[in-house]
Amino acid sequence: MRQKAKWIALVLACLMLASLAACAQQQKPAAEEKKPVILVFGRGADADRLDPARTTSGESVKITLNIFDTLVQFKPGSTDVEPALAEKYEPSADGTEWTFHLRQGVKFHDGTPFNADAVLFSFQRQMDNNHKYYYEDMEYAEMTLGVVKEVVKVDEYTVKFVLNHPFGPFLRNIAMFCNAIVSPAALEKFGDDFFKNPVGTGPFKFVKWDRDSQIVLEANKEYWGGAPKVDQVIFRVIPENSVRLAELQAGNIHLMDGLDPNDIATVEKDTNLALMKQPGLNINYLCFPTRLKPFSDVRVRQAISYAINKENIVNYLYKAAAIVATGPVPKTILDYDVPGYPYDPEKAKELLKQAGFAKGMKMSLWCYPNPRAYNPVGAKLAEAVAADLEKVGITCTIQTMEWTSYLAQSKSEKGFDGPFFLGWMGDNGDVDNFLYALLSTDNIPGGNRARYSNAQVDDLLLKAQKTTDEAARADLYRQAVDLIVKDAPWVFITHTQDMVVLRKGVTGFTQSPLTLFFLKDVALPQ
After folding, report:
1. Is a pLDDT exceeding 60 seen at residue 9?
2. Which candidate, 237, 273, 241, places its Cα nearest to that of 254?
3. How far apart, in whole angstroms, are the C-alpha atoms of residue 452 and residue 423?
4. pLDDT for residue 2
5. Sign of the torsion angle spanned by Cα atoms 150, 451, 281, 204
6. Cβ(419)–Cβ(410) under 8 Å?
7. Res. 25: pLDDT tops 70
8. Where are the beta strands (DSSP E) in 195-321?
């Protein structure tokens, strides 16, 4: 009996030890559970649509770039093109055909395969207005694909673009965000709501969108180009520049754009922050409704151009983080010195007198409230311009409208009843992307919000597209710029520096001359 009691005691002791070990084991994982690494990006406004073919908003592009891939892409920090979903590509000898050899084994985020059929689907929906998923608001389609006669499936992983004629900007156009490859199955599933449920092959998958608050993406661990360095990205909308910077200083966000120039010194003094800046491939302009009186009179447009002190705007409003624009294209992509409209209030008054406004005039001046990459002070720009115009007898009523509605109003048939501020960030590093996109008759009412039309300009721009000799193209563009500046459909205000601010220790971010935010390689300090 005594021997039996010993065995019972030993068994009970073992059970107690096992129970204690089990308890310890249960507590251990909770303590060591790995937290997801979340990158938070602070920006000034929300996206409009997350369908790459149906947006022109830079706020949307920040998101879609990280969800979708294109056949070819821009090299980090460059406007040069490199392979992406197409592993290689080649033009025909006469430049009228381009063949793309597709990457194999790639899947969309919904598990469906990427192949030639998906490529055809993505382009045909932009080119064929009888396509089930063609939308009138695919504004870049004509500009980037108008030259394409057809897209042909050669085999499961080869497609061929047949062009109407050789086209200088073609490859860069194919690299643009609007020509990303979308999941055909997802479009069939979500239909008109695809822009709220985007599905691509990119490094991040869409998770959720809380309007005017945040958009959440998660890492695509199976990404063909290698998994992202973070588990999630959250794009937070923080409209106020000062609040956004305070959030960055507090460590609640990791990077931000739209830095107020008044805060440059603050950032440079903060040892926890790093400022990245470069010449901007952009134009910040005041757009005239050129078909509306009195702005249909070129003398009125020229008068307003002379009346605005752009030097003061650069020095006092943008704290020298910009240069005065004298024409519609930055010198970084078209080496050309055009005189523009220097500050000359007396000349402005004389032109107004000639136009019948010797006693002055009144007008609405429209602006958006939030900062933009090409105008980091938002509506303060309108206040500065209105003050200048008052000096030549033009009284402005400043009107503001939330950005998404503002953008829609600018391209609507009704439009604005007075000049309105807009801007443009170059999409592909080609002059065509500024002049044809924004000032050709073909792009009314798309990118050409001024509804400006000059047959000579149109002819020069079309000739430049068909020319592959870069020197000859540049000469044609210089001639077009001369005509555009003379017609003054815009007040050319500034080319603003691109500025991005990061928390110290955030690595892997490469600033793009095209203001593109690729986040796959961004890592946070551990």
Report:
1. no
2. 273
3. 16
4. 42
5. negative
6. no
7. no
8. 204-210, 214-219, 232-237, 255-257, 273-278, 282-287
Burial of 69: CB neighbours in 10 Å, binned 0-12, 13-18, 19+: buried
Bridge partners of 88, per DSSP, are: 101
Residues 43, 236 contacting (CB under 8 angstroms): yes
pLDDT digits (tens, 9 = 90+) for 229-263: 999 999 999 988 899 999 999 999 999 998 888 89
Alpha carbons 6 and 366: distance in angstroms, whole number: 92
Q: Where are the alpha helices (DSSP H) in 181-250?
A: 184-190, 241-249
Contact assessment for residue 255 and residue 391, using Cβ atoms and an 8 Å cutoff: no
pLDDT score of 10: 46
32, two tokens: 């060591």
What pLDDT is attached to residue 151?
Answer: 97
* Dist CA 237 CA 62 (whole Å): 12
Both tokens of residue 49? 């649509």
Tokens of 506: 């955030």
Sign of CA dihedral 225, 194, 407, 414: positive
Report CA-CA distances (Å) from 113 to 68, 99, 105, 110, 185: 14, 20, 8, 9, 10
Q: Give me the pLDDT at residue 30, please.
A: 52
For the chain, give the number of residues: 526
Per-residue pLDDT tens over the stretch 337-355:
999 999 999 999 999 999 9
Tracing tokens 């519609």 back to the chain, one arrives at 328
pLDDT single digits (tens) 184-219: 999 999 999 999 999 999 999 999 999 999 999 999
What value, to the nearest 5°, has the Cα angle with vertex 382 and ends 378 and 384? 110
**Alpha-carbon distance values, 42 to 21, 37, 87, 249, 507 (Å):** 46, 16, 34, 12, 17
Q: Which residues contact 117 (CB under 8 A, 6 or more apart)?
A: 153, 184
Between CA 393 and CA 383 the distance in angstroms is 15
List, in order, residues 6 or more apart from 265 with CB less than 8 Å away. Answer: none
The pLDDT of residue 515 is 87
What is the structure's pLDDT at 373? 81
Long-range contacts of 450-455 (CB under 8 A, 24+ apart): 450/287, 450/288, 450/289, 450/290, 450/489, 450/490, 451/289, 451/290, 451/291, 451/415, 452/290, 452/484, 452/487, 452/489, 454/483, 454/484, 454/487
Strands (E), 164-267: 204-210, 214-219, 232-237, 255-257
Distance separating alpha carbons of residues 203 and 193, to the nearest angstrom: 22
How far, in Å, CA of 204 to CA of 506, rounded?
18
Distance CA 249, CA 44 (A): 16
> Which tokens hold the place of 322?
């910009």
Could you tell me the two tokens for 197?
A: 């449920």
